[in-house]
Amino acid sequence: MGLSIRAYARHRGVSHVAVKKAIDTGRISQLPDGTIDPVVADAQWAANTTPTRRSMADAASDKLAPQVSAPAREIPQASAATPTRLQREAPEVPTPALSSGGTSLLQARTVNEVVKAQTNKVRLARLKGELVDRSQAVAHVFKLARAERDAWLNWPARISSQMAAGLGVDAHVLHVALDAAVRQQLQDLGDLQAKVD
Question: CA neighbours within 13 Å on the CB side: how many for 194?
């Protein structure tokens, strides 16, 4: 037989609404008869509560402690099932949710906050103009590389007659030689594997 929701709320130093919310969200569990085992519930409360909420709950219980009358304070301490504050802070009782391999609420919230932070970081970088769309960047680089290749392929036809006149050689022979050399150079450049990280 465990404690009622209101009795457990007094035991924790929180409101019964906070205990009800903890039950509804799965942070603590009830026994089959609807009561709460304080040892198991304290362990679950510690494991499934974020550090900020835990420190707020401890501060609230510290504020309420001086206001409790002496007889009311003796009732929870007389119960053998009621743990001390040290036992609540360092529980050794495995909870059913954690022993079955599930993640605790604290772990899930931590993962959620990390994902939110990473998403906000990417969103901010995009707004600052530090990020570009990958498909647009690849298309732009491809377009630039094609334009440069076409310019080099047209260069021998444009320059070979001027060079042949200056050197005193046959313009056609020089054009064929330059065209072959340029094509070989472009082929060698095309074989390079650019790493884009």
Answer: 8
